[in-house]
Amino acid sequence: AGTGSKTIKYSCYSIAVILIIFSVYSLLKRIISGKFSLFCFICFLFILPPVISCIIIYPRDHYVLMISALALIYSFYELAQIPGNELSITLSFWVSAATCFLILILVPTRSSQESIHDHLCTNLNKLNFLRNVDLKGPVNMLSSESGINIYLGKNFNFVSEERMTGTYEDYAGKNNINAILLNANLLSGPRLKNDSAFLSAVRDTSVFRKIEIPDCNTSLLIRKDITN
User: Are residues 228 and 136 in contact, defined by beta-carbon separation less than 8 angstroms?
Assistant: First the structure.
């Protein structure tokens, strides 16, 4: 099942990359040739910034999905402009609209899930808490919350759970993990939920000190040798 889901994921990523490259190439080509319509300009504004964000920061799945939907619409538009192409602009619009409608129905939305702001657990609160923990030495923190990693102090090194391959024991040794931002997402994630070494580590009070983050269902596990 794991191999099958990875195959589907990589196939979707490959299709998304092809669509995005085609769209960006077509947009840049139109800019150079001076054939830049209002529709092209709108697509350019919505497609290019997220692409740059994915390249510079991190290609999260929902970012790629958002860009792919826009790239799909624009790709149909470009195909409709090819001389002699039987695909009409009207048909390309309705095919794109139907695809986007299906995406909206099938993809879970943030509004259908519990909001982190219902119990005051904002990313700002987490950042302020992490910055005020008295630690010594560099912190290599395993976390599934990549949204806060670029705002952590210089003594924090973000270790992404999403990039983990193999076992936790090997990953922890390779990245010298000495802290874990523990929450339900990390515990229920497919990479760690059945990893016996990880489950043992988070329960081992002789190695890790557990600190609860106020107003959050999140804990910070810190190796005792880096706490003051």
Answer: yes
In tens, the pLDDT along 33-48 reads: 887 777 777 877 877 7
Distances (CA, A) of 197 to 80, 144, 165, 194, 204: 55, 18, 14, 9, 10
Of 201, 220, 35, 36, the closest CA to residue 192 belongs to 201
Q: Find the farthest-apart pair of alpha carbons in the chain and give their distance in angstroms, rounded.
A: 73
In the sheet where 139-143 sits, what is the strand order? 156-160, 139-143, 179-182, 219-223, 208-212
R_g of the chain, CA atoms, integer Å: 22
CA 158 to each of CA 7, 114, 120, 170: distance values in angstroms, whole numbers, following the listed order? 27, 25, 23, 17
pLDDT value for 175: 92
